[in-house]
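G., the chain you wanted modeled:
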Amino acid sequence: MPRTKHGVPSRARHNKVLHMAKGHRGVRHTLYRRAKESLLHALSYAFRHRRERKGDMRRLWIVRINASARQHGLSYSQLVHGLDLAGVEVDRKILADLAVRDPNAFAQLAATAKESLSRTAATAAPL
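Predicted structure as tokens:
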């Protein structure tokens, strides 16, 4: 059986790694060993940050909703609780978008939340 040296597959693998490491600084995009290590880190960071981005966006939406809710005399938690009591099922992404792009619609939602909070407070008055 003939001896195989894997020259072509190795070269292809090296070229693939070097191609993916384009844009990395220093020798991290020219030397295979350094490029492979740099690429492993870069790919793990990308994987982790794709998941972190979801939490970052949620935090941004909450900040925007809170800022708009306070303009209408409510805190974020009061607004969300009032909307929950009123049976309004709008997620934070849409609420934040309304707060930024359509203040009138957000004002209506805030009024709905205030009304449902006041109704709940009136029924649960202390004895």
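The chain has a mean pLDDT of 94.

Shout if anything looks off.
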